[in-house]
Structures are given as structure tokens and as C-alpha cells.
Amino acid sequence: xxxxxxxxxxxxxxxxxxxxxxxxxxxxxxxxxxxxxxxxxxxxxxxxxxxxxxxxxxxxxxxxxxxxxxxxxxxxxxxxxxxxxxxxxxxxxxxxxxxxxxxxxxxxxxxxxxxxxxxxxxxxxxxxxxxxxxxxxxxxxxxxxxxxxxxxxxxxxxxxxxxxxxxxxxxxxxxxxxxxxxxxxxxxxxxxxxxxxxxxxxxxxxxxxxxxxxxxxxxxxxxxxxxxxxxxxxxxxxxxxxxxxxxxxxxxxxxxxxxxxxxxxxxx
Length: 268
Hints:
three-stranded antiparallel sheet
């Protein structure tokens, strides 16, 4: 008779609780039971749990709480950096890593095509007037022209310093003549800070890229005939290799960074 009564109550219990919802039954003892259904029958609760049913005296139940439900966080959309198409076009044309170009732009101008430094360097990649003229730039504030010329200059420096990224960045900021003068990164606070900031941004970009595509390694630059890729970056402090002698003096392009010490004469 008791079995028959239990059989009749089962559908009632299932109807009394929403499907796929779990709740906590908190007992006086402090115990918390996870249930998927319950029903008050006189002075007892019949609790539906994994594997069957349990009856508990109603006076032992302190409260019944809904189980915490945490909605999964929506996936964050992948946002490409500004001017990505122009950067990738220049990267392909001059065999320089697009992430390196973007990292330089981020520190130089924070993606502001109308940025002007205190030394009159202009545009996304902060070209000095003489550098822009030498590279054939007609409108330094035009993103396409500025990125193309700045990337070409970056490529020339990579070739000049045998893909030493630290010296390349130091020359981009302070001018090749300063790198030649000191045989290393010039001891200017602005230049040291600039090199570190660009390197940090570049390495972060490469780390994120490797997470997205762990099976393939993306080289710093793609050069089929002449290697201009930055495969390894030297530490900011004292690279081992001495720089080759400069054939011509080229003015620096940028004035990025914070000048805590006297600014290098070649910076913008």
C-alpha cells in the first residue's frame, strides 16, 4: 500500500518543480542538500535528489534557496588595431612584421594621424619633415603615406642593424648617428623608455598570436630573398653586438616616450 502511494506521489513531485532547476534545502544542522524537486507532505518534505528521494521532517528545514546560476561570459569580439589593412599592406611590401609596425605606431602617436611632437615629428609613425621628404611623402598626415614611409624606414634600419630590434628602435627614436656615437642604445631616458615600451607591446602581440595559433610560429618578418625579419629581440640593456659604421646620417623620426633626462639632440 505504501509503495502504491509513493508511486502516485512521484508525478506530483515532478510537476511541482521546474525541469532542470536545482535548489538548496538548508537544514538546522547546517547541512545543505542539492535537490531537483521537493514537496511538502504534512509534516515532512519529500526531496528529489540524484539517485532517489529522501524524506525530511519539515521542522528540520530552515529554508529552501535557489542554486546560484552563473551565466557564461559572452565571448569578447576580436577587435583589430586601427589602420590594420594599411599596416598589413606595408608589412607585405617591405617584409616587416605587422605587429611590430603596430607597436611602433601605438607608442609614437597612439594611432592619431594628426599627432605632432615637440620636435615637429608628424603623423602615425612620427616622421620628421626631413625624413618624410627623403622618403617621398607628400602628405605626412595621410595614414597610408605615413605608414608606408615609416615602415620603409623601419625596414632600412632593420637591415642596417642586422635585425637587432633594440638598436633599430633606438635609431628610430634618437637617430642612427646617436646609435653610432654610443655604439649602443643612447643613454637618454626618452630613448630607453621608448625601446622598452615598443618591445613590450610587440612581445605582447606575438604572445597573443601564438595563443591563437599554437601550431604555427609567426616570424617577425617575411622576406623571401633578403632576410629582414626580427626573429629574436635583444635585451634593452647593452646588446653584445657593436653597430656597424654609418655611411650617412639619418635624422630620427620620433619623440615618443617621457624625457626624464636631457633629450637626445636627434630626437623629435
